[in-house]
Each structure stands twice: as structure tokens, then as C-alpha cells.
Write the C-alpha cells for this entry.
Amino acid sequence: MIPAVLPTYNRAPLNFVKGEGSWMIEADGRRFLDLGAGIAVNVLGHANPKLVAALTAQAEALWHVSNLYEIPQQEALAQKLVDATFADTVFFTNSGTESCELAVKMARKYWFDKGQAEKTQIIAFEGAFHGRSSAGIAAAGSEKMTKGFGPLLPGFVQLPWGDIEALEAAIDETTAAVILEPVQGEGGIRPMADADLQAVRKLCDEAGILLILDEVQCGVGRTGKLFAHEWAGIAPDIMMVAKGIGGGFPLGAVLATEEAASGMTAGTHGSTYGGNPLGCAVGNAVMDEVANPEFLADVNRRAGLLRQKLEGLVAAYPDVFEDVRGSGMMLGLKCKAANMSVVNAGYDALVVTIPAADNVVRLLPPLTISDDDIAEAVNRLDAAAAAVSNAL
């Protein structure tokens, strides 16, 4: 008999009932160090007092009105994002998947309104993850994502990750945009080199096409900049955001330049819940913290400490790990042993990590994780690695 919850998840046998900063408490009382942060979502940790206060105050005033009316909290958050980024305008969604849908619509509508309706093709890269909607899986293109869900939304092509020559050759008169993650998350914590990001931007400029960046997982301070593309000194035309922007409350956004968004006029897109008072109250509180240069500087300092300790862990267990990869607090342990064996041993050692493609274990802790918690987390990872090593 099918369970009440549709069985699409392969869940770990853990039931967390409370969170405190970088810690999660299981129903049986065990305390786990959280190096997953709800898949890069809880950027300010669990039960952050400032987020609790913002949500509580808004909940006591007004929850939801729909986008039929002006929403001051939404306007304030949009202005903060515009002031802090390349963007001129923001549309709020509830998730990264919804952000992908709008980004694709926006890019195609842009060319339609310019009288070039043939420009519908969007170039993506293998290993990508852009959500599980029709557009998202078509963009990713992998059999794992698409098998059984055809016919797929047309107009997408996938190129080898980071292959700039292939990109140059693929751009033609039907190309509308390029979409990519500056750091692939689900794909195995694979950063695109700054020089390659700069080359992609240059090719888009030369061809006059749009660049869509998916910063759903790598954005909102995760790499030590507010958004990962800033390290390369470039800017997109359209950017997908979610996960960290709500600090745990479902919230997403699409940021765009005025030019890229020019086709999106009244009635071309909408959302019942997107950008409602509750979500935007929390989003404003998140931005007040994460966009602070001092906060980001400290994220970089602690990310360096975490990486240094992880390099030592890799050196200590050459039969379990190959290397450390990633940027900021978005790190991956490339494994020689099966990555799920490391994840499962971590559960036994009371530390939470997340598997990814390419036999990688993802480490995506709250950006607020303390030096002491970093040390304790790596001690627990050491115990997990020892258990895996002994079992080989």
C-alpha cells in the first residue's frame, strides 16, 4: 500500500525535532552537527533569533494578501536586492524551481518582443541541476532527471561542463541564452573557473544573447561573496535565487536587468504566494545580515579554517578521499570510497552531510557556524572516515 506521503524520497531514518544554530536534535535526544543546512538553505543557522523575531512580528500582523495589492515588505526586499546586485528589478517566487521557470520565460519573451521569435534555444551544461519542473529537467537533460517524463520541453542543448570552445560553436541564430551554475551543487561541487565565467560572459556579449545564472545553491553568501559570480567580476542578465534568501522560509526570486526583463509586462507572469508578507519579512532579515561586508569577511575566514581542516582529513584518509573542492562554505569531499558510505558513517558519528554526483559528499553548513563547531564537525567526520576506512 502506498504511504500517505508520496514515496519519492529515499529518506535517512532520522527525525529531527529541534534546531539550535549549527546543531539539530533528533527525537531521541542525540545532537547532530549540521553540515547540510537543509541543502544550503539555513544560512543563518537554526532558530536564528533575528529570523524568529521577524517572522513572529509579521505573523502577528498580516500573513498573506496575494499580489493583487502592494506589499511593502516585498518592495523593501526587492530594493535591497537591487541595491546590492546588478539587477534593476526582482520577481519573487517560492522556490528555485519556480525561479527557473520564470528565467526561461523571460529570456524567450525578450526575443519574441524584439521580433526574433526564432531565438528560443537555451544552452546549458552537463551535470547541471535547475530544479524538477518541465523547464528545469529539460535544461539539465540527464537521463536520471528526464527518463519517463517525456515529451520534454524543447529548445535546450547541453554541452560538456566548462567547454568554452563547444559553447562558441553551439551559439547560432536560434540561441536565446546560456544558463549555468557558477558552482554546480547537485553536480558534485564543481566551480566554473573565473576565467571561464568571464569567457562565457564575453561570448554572450559578442553574440548579443542573454546570460542566466542559477545561484539557487551557490548564492546568498554561500561562497563568501553575496553571489558567486562576483568572484569572476562579471554580472548576468538574469539570475535565479532561492534557498538561502529565505533562511529556511520558502522564498525565491528572479533578478534581472531592465533590458532583460523588458518583455515581462502586466499579466505575463504571476504567483499567488510569491513574495508574500511572511516570506519577505524573513528575507529582509536575511539580507540585513548576509549582505553586510563584515559578515561576508567572517564567512571567508571561517571557510578557510574549514577547508584547512578538511585538507588534513583528506591527507589522513587517502583510501577514503581524493580531494577537497568548492568555494567558501560550499565544499565537497571527492571520495574514493562510496560517498553514501561516508554520509551514513557520518550519521553514526552524529554529523550531517549531503551526497552529490561524481561521488562527492557536500558540506554546506550554516554560514554562521562557529570555529569550535567547525573543529567538532571535522572531528566527527574523522570518526566517520575511520569507520569507512576500517570497513574497506
